[in-house]
Design goal:
alpha+beta, four-stranded antiparallel sheet, 9 helices
Length: 214
């Protein structure tokens, strides 16, 4: 567990060195207003739904987003939470098997890059290609580490870990400071830890009592 967490932390720290927008802006090869637009999404609003046609890849300028899919009973299941400067969207490499929703957790400002442009620069531009490889591997590592914790840790240790991971502040699209953890429901935390929302609620009470006793 220690190795996986250290590896994830290192990759994430590298990811935040420069954002996609900064890398594109510092180059004189791109006319960004032609291939990018900015959007502001209200809290709880849908950015895209499974099966919808989207022609953009998104970069979070401020705010936070949750990604997920639907279970057998058509209930939403959250599997990732993103914030500045993460990117997300459908690259259309999965032959129609991409089945994801993206919802804003708070007022969120996005940069929407035309999909054809995004796919071209991550292949043709060595700097952007390196950025894409690093951020993709970082995301994989975070997902693998979460899965490892679900299988290897006790339920309370797993929940404590995800709480610590998501207990971070971000600036939303209106300039207000928000805590990502406070924007997530018990169900969201249950999805991320492989537990029911009832179990999450009970364990959170236990964790809070332990903090008060210290």
């Amino acid at each position: 567990m220690v190795y996986n967490q250290v590896k994830a932390d290192l990759l994430l720290s590298e990811k935040f060195a420069m954002t996609l927008h900064e890398l594109l802006s510092q180059s004189n090869k791109y006319n960004l207003p032609l291939v990018m637009k900015e959007l502001t999404i209200g809290k709880g609003e849908s950015i895209y739904t499974p099966g919808s046609s989207t022609y953009y890849m998104y970069e979070i300028a401020s705010g936070a987003v949750k990604l997920g899919s639907y279970g057998n009973q058509q209930q939403k299941v959250t599997y990732d939470v993103l914030s500045h400067p993460d990117t997300f969207g459908n690259l259309r490499y999965l032959n129609g098997q991409f089945f994801e929703f993206a919802d804003s957790l708070m007022p969120t400002k996005l940069r929407a890059y035309q999909l054809d442009f995004f796919k071209r620069v991550i292949v043709e531009d060595p700097v952007i290609s390196e950025w894409f490889n690093k951020t993709t591997v970082a995301r994989w590592c975070v997902a693998e580490t979460r899965l490892f914790k679900v299988r290897a840790l006790s339920r309370v240790e797993n929940l404590r870990s995800i709480v610590e991971e998501l207990n971070q502040t971000v600036t939303d699209a209106k300039g207000r400071i928000r805590n990502i953890l406070n924007e997530l429901s018990m169900q969201d935390l249950g999805d991320l830890t492989g537990m029911t929302r009832q179990t999450v609620s009970t364990l959170l009470q236990q964790i809070n009592k332990e903090k008060e006793a210290i």
